[in-house]
Amino acid sequence: MTKAANLGFPRIGAKRELKQATEAYWKGAIDAPALLAAGAALRARHWQLQKEAGIDVIPSNDFSFYDQMLDMTATVGAIPPRFLADADAKPTHPNGSARGAMEAAANGQGNPALDLYFAMARGSKAAPAMEMTKWFDTNYHYIVPEFYKGQAFKLSSRKAIDEFKEAKALGIHTRPVLIGPVTYLVLSKAKSEGLDPLSLLDTLLPVYAELLAELKTAGADWVQMDEPILALDLTQPQRRALRLAYKHLAPHAPKIMVASYFGTYGDNLSVAADLPVQGHHVDAVRGWAEVDKVLSALPAERTLSLGVVDGRNVWRTNLWGAFEIIERAMKARGGDNLQIAPSCSLIHAPVDLDNETKLDPELKSWMAFAKQKLHEVAALAVAASKGQAAVGTAFEASDKAARAREASPRIHNPEVAARIEHVTEQDLTRRSSFQARRAKQRAAFGLPAFPTTTIGSFPQTEAVRKARAAHKRGEMSDAAYGEFLREETEKAVRIQEELDIDVLVHGEFERNDMVEYFGEQLSGFAFTQNGWVQSYGSRYVKPPVIFGDVSRPKPMTVEWSSYAQSLTKRPMKGMLTGPVTILQWSFVRDDQPRSVTCQQIALAIRDEVLDLEKAGIRLIQIDEPALREGLPLRAAEHEAYLKWAVDCFRLAAAGVADATQIHTHMCYCEFNDIMPSIAALDADVISIETSRSDMELLESFSDFKYPNEIGPGVYDIHSPRCPGAQDMTALLKKAKERLAPDQIWVNPDCGLKTRRWEEVKPALENMVAAAKAMRGRA
């Protein structure tokens, strides 16, 4: 019988229960047992939901209080030394000592202390957080493992074993999920010079073997080993590492299902086929064209998990189209060793479409969230087992929805298509070179050396959130809400003036999210009530849904930027989200190339840029934190993507006069392999996240001899830690070693929306002090 399988389920809860519990714990409102109980309740609910949906292979250990890579770091005891000396974390270990809890975690004595775990992710008063970056080409962020010379590993958490037993006690036999050892090492970072993380494989494998043996003893018959690096361009050492790892682990483990996703095997197919494992999961959504090669290459006795339901988008699966792929697999190898699954873990999809009570019925009929995707998987598995005669109403409904969506007049706008056709190379090019523009901008703004600014948003306080909710419910009038926002904006302007920041922002109090805010004002977008997905930790986002052609009916930000500028003589930045980021951080229509949708968004943003300039806003920031995120996983596809992505940014930005300064912002990504494209954006100023890497990210800009101006972030806004002026000055000194002094701006790593004013004010005061100290050294 063909089985229905799942690779992972959203951990956040349909009503964001995990966020509420975790943040309550951080605030001290609940204790550790209450937080652990909340996690257990979510796991039980999700296991039962999958069972009721007809899923035969249900995952465990896909739950996390913060991040699955951080969980693996805790499991193998790879705790950075700086956290072992941190005495500021709350004790959760029975001996009552915070240091004892950390040492116990490092020495494998029980589960790592919760506060150590969260300190590694978020930082503490004494220790900065571990680095964070994007998980492949998604908007999910993982905590980067870091290794040092002499790195040792030890089984330090039984989380995977405990959660398997927890499900077993509920009558649900699960398949535990682990990050595979090679993916874990390849995605890590060496903190000691000359250390190659892959060289630690021999030291790491015994810990994996011990864990797998314990899972086998506990009754696990299969384990899912996530090795998504198989979708990347691998080096020969990485390929050897995969063969070595599974040769070592196979004798100790239950049956192993190696899961690759987000792309095709490509030239790694022979590596996968050679692994001594019992099963393979393949992404047949992105890799549909490779399925026949996979069927030929993988030994017939191995179980094949076929990911035919898109785990990364919200569109309903065309079940007949998916079934065609399944039939090819069944014809090649039969159905007994076949599993039907989503393309990847469903953590990248919202939880439950049933909770959308206000969504347009027609649009809703085209969609499926994680819960609904489970039912699609189950329907396909039933059809595979019983034949086309058993397809039933699920296939009929799928076919009806697909035909209705294709024929809907809401999808296409002839005026948008005509405008796209008339875009020329001139539309993508600034009028003068950067050097010529720079001279005009410096004369216009008269800024000091090491000018200070922030990235855009200021704290979204409880008062701001309550007012927004009251306005949304109709309990606060438009006039009252507008007056409230004007007061908050003026407060932010006055605070920035008091702190002596050089270039101000208006604070974005009227905005809910940097993408959702714009999507709400653009045509072709739809919005959900509860379509939340995890970005990192307790930070969840509710991406818009792009269902049709995009255009801008009217100005979106001009009123608020103009009002803020009227309050001060200092320059005020206009704040926009760039076209690539709006594309990447939305659920995008799948019926036309993403490049076309991005170009439509770029034209809408261009209209806004020009209206801001007409209104007297002469510094305009177009944020593109997702530019690197959108880079295809294979190098052969990079050039085409970067060409259209850069062109879309330039289309949005290039229409302004020379004296108008265009800023952009990027964060939590590596730049070294895309530096020519970063330069090709031709932004006058780019601000980037660099504090977690201790300014190491600037090496890419220095080596490339990046010509324009740069604002390297001098403090990590995702951590509650407030660095001192000396800390920031030290970072700026490192920046000065790599950049010319007249290139450097001074700013935080990212927007300040998620922080509290009590944290923001002293941090920005220290930031300004550091900038002024550097001016004395310039």
How do the helices and strands line up, and which of them pair or pack?
Layout: E1 3-4, H1 17-26, H2 32-52, E2 58-60, H3 68-75, H4 81-84, H5 98-106, H6 114-122, E3 132-134, E4 141-143, E5 146-147, H7 159-169, E6 174-179, H8 181-186, E7 189-190, H9 201-218, E8 222-226, H10 236-249, E9 255-259, H11 269-274, E10 279-283, H12 291-297, E11 303-309, H13 319-333, E12 338-342, H14 361-364, H15 370-386, H16 392-407, H17 414-421, H18 434-445, H19 462-472, H20 478-499, H21 516-519, E13 523-526, E14 533-536, E15 539-541, E16 545-551, H22 558-566, E17 573-577, H23 579-584, E18 587-588, H24 594-614, E19 619-623, H25 638-653, E20 661-666, H26 675-680, E21 685-688, H27 698-704, E22 709-712, H28 725-738, H29 757-775
Parallel strand pairs: 1-12, 2-6, 5-7, 6-8, 8-9, 9-10, 10-11, 11-12, 16-18, 17-19, 19-20, 20-21, 21-22
Antiparallel strand pairs: 3-4, 13-16, 14-15
CATH fold title of the domain at 428-460 and 500-775: TIM Barrel
Shape: globular
Taking pLDDT < 50 over at least 5 consecutive residues as the criterion, the unreliable ranges are 86-112
Largest sheet: 8 strands, parallel
SS element count, helices? 29
User: What is the correct CATH architecture of the domain at 428-460 and 500-775?
Assistant: Alpha-Beta Barrel
Decide which structural class fits the backbone. alpha/beta
Kindly state the number of beta strands: 22
Mean pLDDT: 92
CATH class of the domain at 428-460 and 500-775: Alpha Beta
Main-sheet strand order equals 1-12-11-10-9-8-6-2
Please give the radius of gyration in angstroms.
26 Å
End-to-end CA span: 73 Å
Q: What fraction strand?
A: 5-15%
Classify the helix fraction into a percent range: 40-55%
